[in-house]
Design goal:
6 strands; six-stranded antiparallel beta sheet; 22% helix; elongated; 5 helices; single chain; alpha+beta; 174 residues; Thiol Ester Dehydrase, Chain A
Length: 174
Amino acid sequence: MISFEILIKADRRLGFFDELEVSDTYRLGSTRISRASSLAFAKVFDPFYFHINEEAAKRSIFGGLIVSGLQTLSAVHALSIEGGFLCEDSIVCGAGIDELRFLRPVRPDDTLSVTTEIMELKPPRRSGGHGIARLKYWVSNQNDELVATFIDNHVVKLKSNADPLPGTAASQTA
């Protein structure tokens, strides 16, 4: 069964576009990808032998089982949302990931910690629109070794234009 475990939550949430500043940094928290979850994910979404076959993986360039990079990225995304960094009140959606690099293998049962920094803010193209916040992410394992980096482009609401989400208490009073 594919599962997800939060060990530490984010230190604060990503705010509205007009609250953000270039060079703002955040600690998103930590997560662990269990062996069972790693195998379950890989069997469905990334069935290369070094993700699913322990004996064959020992003979690979990795010397043992490794977590799928796709699952590593998915775990970081889940941590961002479930850990309280990305919230639906200020985030519209993602607009793409740039410069994704897997620098070192992630092993089953590794603990991953994530930090991010705002690299660029692209203002709305029109009045009442949404801005783009480009954030650089650094993912490290329990040994403080960098395992992945990427730039995520978040579409972020302006605080002045934020509408309450349907089905929330704020939308029912508006």
